[in-house]
Specification:
The protein is of the alpha/beta class and 345 residues long. It has ten helices and eight strands. Helix 2 packs parallel to helix 7 and helix 4 packs across helix 5.
């Protein structure tokens, strides 16, 4: 309230230039000038501030509009500070309703600026180059504040809607909410969020415009904070998903190991059954093999004959041994006569 009083926001127009629709926002009359009720101004300004902050926090685009000489610098400075689009020279008809054509003009302006920067324009004839520079200067004057506008704005802040009638009309056609500083000579009906106040004083307009720019900055900071939280949440979710995937992989590996163990057990069982099959066959073939022991009783007869022949064999062996012992004696006997003959000689 104190800042509003110091900057003269409460001063309206002369009583003979007033708009009767603004009577509810007029506090009194003094020296032929209407005095605006600042209590209502503060309340309505808070509503406009919160509305702008919340909408910008939802990634909405806002456009500042003010073409009067005393507000041109304010509009450009505050819009640049908060990163908003602005029109401070001349409102081109169809800026909103014929946005496609305006977009083409913006692209043409950017191409011509590139030609000037890289020196392509110097290669053109002097007459054509000078004509292009004049055209570029005109485009920059009217569209410089809209060079980054990719789509139609979602909000519009206007200073003195009585002067910016074309902008207000196009915004109403497209249903774009309007926030405006409305003086006692303006029609408040087309405005969605009006701020009763002095729209001619430089300090008053700068104060309100700066606060609207602060709302835009606050909304974008909140949006960035939400985006950062969303990114953090997404990273957490990705980490959780990665952990879940690792756990699932571990469980799958455990299942594979269990399946392999089961397969090995099955193979072992199959091999065990295969090894047991011959014994089963042997048991089935048992009666055929039992026939052999029936032939074995003949063996004791052979053993008996062998027992009977054993003494004869022993006698034969003894005779052969004796014969072997007798042979050396014969040889010694033969040698002895030879010795005797020698003695005779």
């Amino acid at each position: 309230m104190k800042e509003l009083l110091e900057t003269g926001v409460h001063f309206g127009h002369r009583t003979r230039k007033w708009n009767p629709k603004m009577a509810r926002y007029i506090f009194t009359e003094r020296k032929g000038i209407h005095i605006i009720d600042l209590e209502q101004t503060v309340d309505l300004f808070k509503k406009a501030y919160y509305f702008v902050r919340d909408r910008v926090g939802e990634n909405a685009e806002i456009m500042f509009v003010g073409t009067k000489k005393q507000v041109q610098a304010t509009i450009a400075d505050e819009a640049a500070r908060c990163g908003a689009h602005y029109v401070n020279r001349r409102w081109l008809g169809g800026t909103l309703t014929n946005f496609g054509t305006i977009k083409q003009s913006i692209e043409r302006m950017k191409k011509m600026e590139m030609m000037v920067e890289d020196g392509t324009i110097d290669a053109l004839p002097n007459k054509e180059a000078s004509k292009m520079r004049r055209r570029l200067a005109k485009l920059v004057r009217n569209l410089d504040g809209l060079r980054n506008l990719e789509r139609k704005p979602d909000l519009m802040f206007v200073i003195d809607p009585d002067v910016e009638t074309s902008a207000v009309r196009e915004a109403n056609i497209l249903g774009i909410p309007i926030i405006a500083i409305v003086d006692t000579n303006c029609d408040p009906d087309p405005i969605d969020f009006l701020i009763p106040g002095n729209d001619d004083a430089i300090k008053a307009t700068k104060l309100i415009t700066a606060r609207i720019a602060d709302a835009v900055i606050e909304g974008r900071e909140g949006l960035q904070g939400e985006q950062a939280e969303a990114i953090a949440d997404s990273t957490d979710e990705t980490e959780e998903a990665a952990l879940d995937a690792e756990e699932a992989a571990e469980e799958a590996s455990e299942d594979v190991v269990a399946e392999d163990a089961a397969a090995v057990a099955v193979e072992d069982a199959v091999t065990a059954e295969a090894s047991e099959e011959p014994s089963d066959e042997a048991t089935e073939d048992g009666p055929a093999e039992d026939e052999k022991p029936a032939e074995e009783p003949a063996e004791p007869a052979e053993d008996e004959t062998s027992d009977e022949e054993a003494p004869a064999k022993e006698e034969a062996v003894a005779i052969e041994g004796a014969a072997a012992e007798d042979e050396p004696e014969d040889e010694s006997a033969d040698d002895e006569p030879e010795e005797t003959t020698d003695d005779d000689d």
